[in-house]
Amino acid sequence: MHIPDGYLGPYTCVFFYLIMIPIWYKAFKWLKNLKPSQVPLLGLLTAFSFLVMMYNMPVPGGTTAHIVGGTIIAILISPWAATVSLTIVLLIQALFFGDGGITTYAANVFNMGVVLPFVGYYTYRFLTQRLNLNEIISAGVGAYIGIVTAATVAGIELGVQPSIQPGYCPYPLGVSVPAMAIAHLVTAGPAAAVVTTAVVWYVKKSRPDLFEMRTITKSRG
Amino acid sequence: MDRVTKTLLAIVGVMIILSPIGILLVWNYSDAWGEWDVNTVEQMVGHQLPGMEKLSEVWNHAVLPDYNVPGWEDKLHASIGYIISAIVGTILVVLLYYALVKFTVGKGTSP
Question: What predicted TM-score, i.e. pTM, was given to this entire model?
């Protein structure tokens, strides 16, 4: 899901930097709310996100996909925390490992650091609060929908590029969206669901206080 | 350190050691969709992409491109290069994270 330099033209890249400025402002401001006890947790989850993206999985048809870990961070801490983590991870990946890009950095943070954790988190909240479904199962479903949505959005960005400015990503929407969506529907989505379910189950079992605190704030809100 | 933090620390360590799974499992696969280099894309579509050629050149200073030490092509060397990349990347993201926490939370709150 890391769009490399060259796939998006200058207008598209600038557009996503403009979109990300207020989101980055909000996310970094949110970081002040991080409790001292959560500081090492978010650091480790950021490292987890970097590492989990190194686990490429085969996609039928010959390509690969990986999970991101954004919904886990969103559920355990906050979707804004996930934005901060992914902002860090995607910068290091682009600069040191040539994964993703500099011009496409804002678009990649938007997809993996905003769309993915927020869709994952609000799906989880909708299932637990409105439908009263089990928290652990809802976390898995949230992660699945989050990553598939983010991949689809990345596919849309790539697919509209030929109509905005030709000479960059050559594939139209009819090719890029199914390719990105299917890879994540069949491979990364199920993997994200399983990993997120396992992590949330473990944390709920070991640190139920994290979830109880949230329930109290929920009933007040 | 509480139990969750300890377990996560152990998971991060295990993930570094086992990281070569992430390349060995997909050894004969191509890149992720839409992550091919310019030459590959041009070959696939059969024409030049001038914009992509130009923009793809903006950053070629990656120290460990594709999470590997340049030139380490065989499975064993690529696996070692991958573990090195996992260690370097983990250290870098954690350093940047604490720098950011210090910067935004301000002095007085030690991480």
Answer: 0.94
Among candidates A41, A42, A58 on the partner chain, residue whose Cβ is nearest the Cβ of B26: A58
User: What range does the domain containing A184 cover?
Assistant: 10-207
Residue A105 inside a domain? The answer is yes
- Residue A210: is its pLDDT beyond 90? no
Q: What percent of chain A has pLDDT over 90?
A: 90
β-bridge mates for residue A57, sequence order: A65
Q: What is the mean pLDDT of chain B?
A: 93
CA distances from B103 to A27, A151, B79, B96 (A): 14, 32, 36, 10
User: Would you say residue A215 lies in a domain?
Assistant: no
- Whether A219 maps to a domain, the answer reads no
Closest approach of A3 to chain B, Cα-based (Å): 6
**Contact B52/A7, CB-based, under 8 Å?**
yes
Whether chain A has a CB inside 8 Å of the CB on B51: the answer is yes
CATH of the domain at A77: 1.10.1760.20
Domain count, chain A: 1
A-chain residues within 8 Å CB-CB of B53? 6
Which of A101, A96, A123 lies closest to A2, judged by CA? A101
> Tens digit of pLDDT for each residue in B36-60?
999 999 999 999 999 999 999 999 9
Q: Which residues of A touch B60 (CB under 8 A)?
A: 98
Give the pair of three-digit tokens for residue A138.
Answer: 């809802």
